[in-house]
Design a protein that fits this description.
By secondary structure, the chain is an alpha+beta fold. The protein has a domain of 219 residues: Ribosomal Protein S5, domain 2 (2-Layer Sandwich). The chain is built from eleven helices and twelve strands. Strands 1, 2, 3, 4, 5, 6, 7 and 12 form an eight-stranded mixed beta sheet that branches. A four-stranded antiparallel beta sheet has the order 9-10-8-11. A hairpin with a 6-residue loop joins strand 9 and strand 10. 48% of the residues are buried.
Length: 398
């Protein structure tokens, strides 16, 4: 876990004096609602207790200087150099096509996006450090974008409004960094609430917190496999959903309710029928999960996670042998109420809803059994729901 006091000390060593602010932006995990976001449906992620932190101080000019304590190196650019840049035009702080995305691109991309929104940006200098695992499906990129946006907000005296800032961060990732993503990650990184998940309507962008009972925790289980097919198959699934909506005569599959699905199902051939059935049923499951959490019915919530995984495996066909093995092993453990794959699929992570008192045994048994079955070494992370992004005066952290 990041110690803000250590971050402040690093700032003093690098820049002299004290920072003006410390900002924190959490990672996230999606509890339920998978592949529903681009169908204008419902998702229910939660911000987690792993985050990106920046200690910063305003500058009198338009220079941005950021030192990374995780990756090493420094990004230094003038905000004015980003004005009227066309994404993909070869700016030095834009990632080259087909190259790994560097951390520096996120700061320039967020600045560019906020400039496009008319923000009167001022320069700042700071140090950044995070403990959101990279590549584990916990959205380290969204945490970095939101942290950067909060740093610009603090140094420029601009308010942090959840939806506009989330949209600006999404645009930075889509158009500057070049990664296609929905709005869920950035929005929950801003709107998270301690001990709660967040129900998001991906059409209206309205959200509300939903309490996660304290007697359970969410365990993220990294299968140690990566999503080789995820990008290409993601595009295929998205196109299939769009075609399904067109054939049904609706704007998006969100417009088909579970109650009317039986009337719509005969209108679709394969694979559009199964793709649509997943989206329609997953929206229903997400809303039912809200009811279960508000009623404290954790057994029902667990069953909904299992049903979600089955639908993702059989109807949406985005699971994998490693994900199925991890979910099956999790469900065999005492105290595990439910489990499912999470994210785009074909590898990556699964999640398990585990009774708090059963977590120590769970964390010991699942990795050993999974490694014996697959010869792969997994990583497990216990995640607690946390508040969204914050801008803090450093004296409250010392």
């Amino acid at each position: 876990m990041i110690e803000p006091k250590r971050l402040i000390e690093e700032f003093r060593l690098l820049f002299g004096g004290n920072p003006d602010w410390v900002v924190r932006a959490p990672g996230r995990v999606n509890l339920i609602g998978e592949h529903t976001d681009y169908n204008e449906g419902f998702v229910m992620p939660m911000a987690i207790d792993r985050a990106v932190w920046i200690a910063l101080r305003a500058r009198p000019d338009t220079q941005v200087v950021v030192e990374s304590l995780d990756f090493g190196g420094r990004v230094n650019f003038d905000i004015h150099s980003l004005a009227r840049v066309i994404p993909g035009s070869g700016h030095p702080l834009q990632p080259h096509k087909n190259s790994p995305h560097t951390w520096t691109a996120y700061f320039a991309g967020v600045a560019w996006s906020l400039l496009e929104e008319g923000w009167p940006l001022q320069g700042w200098e700071g140090v950044v450090r995070g403990d959101v695992p990279i590549g584990a499906g916990l959205s380290s990129s969204a945490a970095l974008e939101v942290a950067a946006a909060c740093a610009f907000a603090a140094s420029s005296g601009c308010p942090v409004k959840v939806v506009p800032v989330a949209l600006a961060c999404q645009r930075a990732e889509n158009q500057w960094v070049g990664v296609s993503c929905g709005i869920m990650d950035q929005l929950v990184c801003l709107a998270g609430k301690k001990n709660h998940a967040v129900l998001i309507d991906c059409r209206s962008l309205q959200w509300r917190p939903v309490p996660l009972p304290n007697e359970v925790v969410l365990v993220v289980m990294d299968t140690a496999t990566r999503r080789d097919l995820a990008n290409s198959e993601y595009n295929v699934r998205r196109a299939q959903c769009e075609e399904g909506a067109r054939l049904l005569g609706v704007r998006a599959l969100r417009d088909i309710s579970w109650e009317t699905w039986s009337q719509c199902e005969p209108m679709l051939g394969e694979p559009w029928r199964r793709r649509a059935r997943h989206v329609v049923s997953e929206n229903q499951r997400t809303l039912q999960a809200v009811e279960a959490m508000e009623q404290g019915d954790l057994c029902r919530l667990g069953r909904l996670l299992v049903e979600s995984h089955r639908s993702l495996r059989e109807d949406f066909e985005v699971s994998s042998p490693a994900l199925d093995a991890m979910v099956d092993l999790a469900l065999q453990q005492a105290g595990c109420l439910g489990a499912r794959m999470t994210g785009a699929g074909f590898g990556g992570c699964a999640i398990a809803l585990v009774k708090r008192d059963a977590v120590p045994v769970f964390l010991e048994a699942v990795p050993a059994q999974y490694q014996a079955a697959t010869k792969l070494e997994p990583k497990l992370y216990v995640c607690e729901p946390s508040d969204g992004a914050q801008i803090l005066p450093p004296d409250v952290l010392v």
